[in-house]
Amino acid sequence: MSNNNSNIDDVEHDLYAKALIGSDPEAGQATTQLICDVCEKSMSPDQLDSNPEYWNQIFCSTHMDDGTPICRACHRLKASHVTYIELGDGREICQDCCGSAILDTKSFESLVRKCHEFYKSMNMEIDNDIPFFLVDSSEMAKLTIQIDQDNPFETTYQGNWGIIIHEQRPVVNIITSSSRIGNRITVIKKPSEPNNGSMLSIAVLFGFTEALTGAILVHEMMHVWLRLQDIEPLELKLEEGICQVISRRWLDWYESNVVETDTETTKQSDSERGEFLRNLLRIYKLRLELDSSFDYGDGFREAQRATSQFGLQSTIQYIITNERLPL
Fold it and tell me: Residue 159 in contact with residue 61, Cβ under 8 Å?
């Protein structure tokens, strides 16, 4: 989740391509015809690109830079026969992801409650009075600029997907509802209530799936929780790493408490939906674990090793006391 780069390792790519192509030991030729999942045309092995960990799509390598839309929630390239939904800011999402996308106040508030439940399950309650704002890309960009100028709070690992802000700020234009006309989502916004207090608040970008938006939220909530412990600012890699661990745990919690519960109570006809959500969570986990960035990727892996060895609560308390991970 830390970046949108879904390219795979060259060695893994070659092995996967060979497995897809197959070969006839006698003739030494390919035995399987390759069909692009995007344009549905035949392609030769040298045209192949693929992401085996992401939906097992195979496609012409030219689609990576020919403007083919990519779902910003599940990272699948758009096939020619599939309809994607425009969010109005250059992003598009597929129909599957749109089914659980956070697009209005009602769904956002329900998700915030789930995030509070998740923190309670870890015995780490977050103040229920902390404001949460669902915003569009233009509002997120404005908030990011203000924070860069007025306050040293960092943006999150998602870039401009989520951010911590002070209540001492101009009014935030928040999304209240949305409507779909054709293949485009239109949002309705209203200004938030002005507040000159010093309480921290969280803004999150609309349009992602409930699972991904929740991962962004709990990451930001962990930043807030650390701020409220009255400690000195932590090293960026350390803080982002432990926040990423929380996001990773959210994905497990969401799968057990939301996806599996819903699957058990839905009709057999909805089984494909449950399978899609499980695959989606698998991808989110994998992207988080394979993040190659220093602060978020390496930070996560180091914090994950510590929590695996010493436990989450002990690791967090050690961080608060010593401002570093336990050895």
Answer: no
Q: Compute the distance between CA of residue 233 and CA of residue 135 in angstroms, rounded to an integer.
A: 27
DSSP SS3 for 286: helix
Beta strands in the chain (DSSP E): 34-35, 42-43, 48-51, 57-60, 84-86, 92-94, 132-135, 155-156, 159-166, 173-181, 184-191, 200-205
**Minimal CA–CA distance to 304: which of 217, 225, 237, 246?**
246
Of 199, 238, 241, the C-alpha closest to 219 is 241
Which residues touch 54 (CB under 8 Å, ≥6 apart)? 6, 75, 76, 283
The structure's pTM equals 0.84
Residue 214 CA: distances (Å) to CA of 7, 70, 204: 25, 21, 10
Rounded distance, CA 156 to CA 124, Å?
A: 21
Average confidence (pLDDT) over 131-156: 72
Short-list 69, 4, 6, CA closest to 38: 69
Question: Which residues make Cβ contacts (< 8 Å) with residue 9, sequence separation at least 6?
Answer: none
Sheet with 92-94: strands ordered across: 92-94, 84-86, 184-191, 173-181
Domain ranges of the chain: 10-98, 105-322
> 94 has which bridge partners?
84
| Long-range Cβ pairs for the range 58-61 (8 Å, 24+) | 58/20, 58/34, 60/36
As given in the structure block, the two tokens for residue 246 are 């929380």
CA distance 159 to 170: 21
pLDDT digits (tens, 9 = 90+) for 1-25: 333 333 333 433 443 343 344 444 4
* Cβ–Cβ < 8 Å for 189, 210: no
pLDDT of residue 219: 97
Nearest CA among 146, 116, 141 for reference residue 130: 116
**Calpha distance 215→40 (Å, rounded):** 34
Report the DSSP beta bridge partners of residue 162. 204
